[in-house]
Amino acid sequence: MASFIVKLFFIISLFNVRFASSRMLTSLVQNQLLKYHKGQLLSGKISVNLIWYGKFNPFQRAIVADFIISLSSPATAKSQPTVATWWKTTEKYYHLVNSEKSSTLALYLGKQVLVENYSLGKSLTQKQIIQLASKGEQKNAINVVLTSSDVTVDGFCLNRCGSHGSKSTLVKGKNDNTLVKGKNDKFAYIWVGNSKTQCPGYCAWPFHQPIYGPQSPPLVAPNNDVGLDGMIINLASLLAGTATNPFGNGYYQGPSAAPLEAASACPGVYAKGAYPGYAGDLLVDPPTGASFNAHGANGRKYLLRALYDPSTSKCYTLV
């Protein structure tokens, strides 16, 4: 009995800490702008190259590819709100730095690289993630490494569902490889893991019951794939962070080693009415019962985390 009470107290304590942390973050964000640290932002036409590490079927790859295409897809009257509308919130960060329209960012789907033979094994370090990211284009690019559900990565599920960073461009010469030094010769990279079998309650919520806290029924994933739909949530958030803080000196709040960025500043917020444990009043697709908040290319539907709007100092939700 004593053991049960101790465990119950521990669970309640975890929930209270999570609730208090979420409430503190929300209060912090709504009362202070994300600070601009005078660094370079990504701008112009940037290709998003996808490096698939491990086993992904064509349907899964299409979910992510269509999402990247959706970032710049034109809206129609029947497809509101859209992924592109969500992405336009990032333009406000650029306008604060430079009022010229040319300073904004346009993303497009670039090359896709398949590494299905687990050439680096099934347990990866951060250094190996960068090694994989280097397989993509290294100029005017964001290289996205996506690891399959049977691949572990340092820190995955413990304190992160993905990450982003930058690497100096490698120029290949005749006899050696030389690192180019300079302000503009870095490429940005992102890593996102498929959490379906490792920690869906942590990295794929609200499409899976959370690890702790209120155990409300999970929502139906819009593409009928909990792991991939969870990856989209995290990829979208990291893309927003990469655009507005690509080299660690752009827009963020808090310590540079663990910054709050455009999307991570709005934890657990997907629609109006959101609170800890509840994603908000989302749209529901009648035929499937799936929850979403953004229409995408090729008839896709996605769920995207709210973005911090620097013009209002609030988390902007599509619905």
Overview in brief:
By secondary structure, the chain is an alpha/beta fold. It has helices at 2-31, 58-70, 83-87, 91-97, 126-133, 200-203, 226-244, and strands spanning 35-36, 44-53, 105-115, 123-124, 141-147, 152-153, 162-168, 170-172, 177-179, 186-193, 251-252, 283-285, 290-292, 294-295, 301-302, 307-309, 314-316. Strand 14 (294-295) and strand 15 (301-302) form a beta hairpin.
Write the layout of secondary structure elements.
Blueprint (H helix, E strand, L loop, with lengths): L1 H30 L3 E2 L7 E10 L4 H13 L12 H5 L3 H7 L7 E11 L7 E2 L1 H8 L7 E7 L4 E2 L8 E7 L1 E3 L4 E3 L6 E8 L6 H4 L22 H19 L6 E2 L30 E3 L4 E3 L1 E2 L5 E2 L4 E3 L4 E3 L3
Parallel strand pairs: 2-3, 2-5, 4-6, 5-10
Antiparallel strand pairs: 1-11, 7-10, 8-9, 12-13, 14-15, 16-17
Q: Any overview of this molecule?
A:
The protein is an alpha/beta fold. The chain has seven helices and 17 strands. The strands form seven sheets. It has a five-stranded mixed sheet with strand order 3-2-5-10-7. Strand 16 (307-309) and strand 17 form a beta hairpin. The model is unreliable at 1-31 and 172-183 (pLDDT under 50).
Supply the key terms.
single chain, 319 residues, alpha/beta, five-stranded mixed β-sheet, two-stranded antiparallel ribbon, globular, disordered N terminus
Order of helices and strands: HEEHHHEEHEEEEEEHHEEEEEEE
Average pLDDT figure: 85
Count of DSSP helices? 7
Sequence of strands across the biggest β-sheet: 3-2-5-10-7
**Main sheet characteristics:** 5 strands, mixed
Shape field: globular
The portion of residues assigned to helices is: 25-40%
